[in-house]
């Protein structure tokens, strides 16, 4: 069966009805997508700002901890080589080629500018001597090591003297050691020497009024033999410095997180204070504006009421005057002094009562109502009084 025209018309009408609905649906979808994209963009912006603030606070916290560590922690250790020299070689006796003791002048400044020791910090100062196990050193026995720190002006700060000697080894032990370590001794990997450590100061504290810039080290022995020597300065930490030096990672983590928390708390409190202050300022401005608008509103509300009352009174009085005018016959009466006195007595008076003007009218006398001229004057005065005009106030 072929479709009829009516079926085609119904299908066309159905398609025409669905078209606007599809357009409306597409518009709603586009609007929803635009709003959603706008919200996503706003959220991404807020998240990026938050991440930037967090990174900035973290770097500031790290910088504060680094500055604190650099300023609070003194030099932990300082190692410098010691080079000995002889002040005199012109000995009068031919049996002694050297007449003076080995002496060394050591600088206690880093890079020749900065002081090594901090004021009030105790330091342990030791001297390490590498000495060969030669017959001369074995026969030397005990010897004295002397250290004399001095200030920039050349004044002696302190004097320390300690004794030292080689460790004793018997001839049999030396022979066995030579046999056992002969391969390394032959290849040069090992040497027959000893390291003698002399502790010159156990707790040396620098004076802030007379800081130490150098020291003179002297060994009281003319026949001592030394390979090399080093001066070691170690800081003896206690309290917080001990924790910072021996547990650096944990201390850094705790310090940075503490600074981060403190700075974050300050930023949050400042933000809340700023918002509360802005809200209070806006609230005060709104209250002041409302207070300033209240009198104007009262005046605006009172004026229409007064005008309405005046209009009503005018209409009532006009109506009454018309009725009186119609009810009174036209009778010509001459004006007299008595009528003028009665007219003056019938004028309205203004009295103040509770801050408002009360308009009172006296009853018109029968004699004044009989004259048309008096009726006209009374009508004019009633018109003026209906608008609140008061000549006597």
Overview of this structure, please?
The chain has 393 residues and is an alpha+beta fold. 52% of the residues lie in helices and 21% in strands. It has nine helices and 13 strands. The protein has helices at residues 5-72, 135-140, 171-180, 182-187, 240-246, 248-327, 337-345, 366-369, 372-386, and strands spanning 77-81, 85-86, 102-107, 109-110, 114-115, 122-132, 143-151, 160-164, 193-205, 212-220, 228-235, 349-353, 356-360. The strands form four sheets. The protein has a five-stranded antiparallel sheet with strand order 2-3-10-7-8, with no helix packed on it. Strand 12 (349-353) and strand 13 form a beta hairpin. Helix 5 packs across helix 6 and helix 6 (248-327) runs antiparallel to helix 9. The longest helix has 80 residues, at 248-327. The two termini are 103 Å apart. It holds the Pfam family Seipin. The chain crosses the membrane at residues 44-62, 250-272. It is a multi-pass membrane protein. Its main location: endoplasmic reticulum. Keywords: Endoplasmic reticulum, Lipid metabolism, Membrane, Transmembrane, Transmembrane helix.
Which stretches are low in confidence, meaning pLDDT under 50 for 5 or more residues running? 308-366, 386-393
Strand content: 15-25%
Roughly what percent helix?
Answer: 40-55%
> Structural class, from secondary structure content?
alpha+beta
Q: What order do the SSEs take from the amino end to the carboxyl end, as H and E?
A: HEEEEEEHEEHHEEEHHHEEHH
The overall pLDDT average reads 75
Largest sheet: 5 strands, antiparallel
Total number of beta strands: 13
């Amino acid at each position: 069966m072929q479709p009829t025209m009516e079926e085609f018309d119904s299908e066309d009408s159905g398609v025409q009805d669905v078209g606007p609905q599809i357009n409306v649906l597409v518009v709603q979808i586009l609007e929803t997508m635009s709003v959603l994209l706008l919200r996503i963009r706003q959220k991404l912006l807020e998240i990026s700002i938050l991440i930037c603030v967090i990174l900035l606070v973290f770097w500031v916290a790290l910088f504060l901890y680094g500055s604190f560590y650099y300023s609070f922690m003194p030099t932990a250790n300082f190692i410098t080589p010691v080079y000995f020299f002889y002040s005199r070689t012109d000995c009068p006796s031919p049996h002694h080629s050297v007449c003076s003791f080995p002496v060394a002048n050591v600088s206690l400044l880093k890079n020749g500018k900065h002081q090594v020791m901090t004021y009030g910090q105790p330091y342990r100062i030791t001297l390490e001597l590498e000495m060969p196990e030669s017959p001369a050193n074995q026969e030397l026995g005990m010897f004295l090591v002397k250290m004399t720190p001095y200030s920039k002006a050349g004044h002696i700060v302190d004097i320390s003297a300690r004794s030292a000697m080689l460790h004793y080894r018997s001839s049999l032990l030396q022979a066995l050691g030579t046999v056992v370590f002969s391969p390394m001794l032959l290849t040069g990997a090992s040497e027959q020497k000893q390291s003698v450590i002399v502790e010159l100061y156990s707790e040396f504290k620098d004076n802030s009024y007379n800081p130490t810039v150098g020291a003179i080290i002297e060994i009281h022995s003319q026949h001592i033999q030394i390979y090399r020597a080093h001066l070691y300065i170690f800081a003896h930490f206690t309290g917080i410095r001990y924790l910072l030096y021996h547990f650096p990672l944990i201390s850094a983590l705790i310090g940075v997180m503490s600074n981060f928390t403190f700075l974050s708390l300050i930023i949050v409190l400042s933000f809340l204070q700023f918002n509360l202050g802005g809200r209070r300022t806006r609230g005060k401005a709104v209250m002041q504006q409302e207070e300033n608008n209240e009198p104007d509103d009262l005046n605006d509300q009172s004026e229409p009421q007064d005008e309405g009352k005046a209009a009503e009174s005018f209409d009532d009085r006009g109506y009454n005057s018309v009725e009186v005018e119609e009810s009174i016959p036209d009778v010509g009466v001459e004006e007299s002094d008595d009528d003028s006195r009665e007219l003056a007595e019938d004028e309205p008076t203004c009295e103040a009562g509770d801050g408002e003007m009360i308009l009172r009218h006296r009853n018109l006398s029968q004699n004044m109502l009989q004259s048309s001229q008096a009726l006209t004057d009374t009508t004019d005065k009633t018109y003026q009084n209906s608008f609140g005009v008061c000549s006597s106030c």
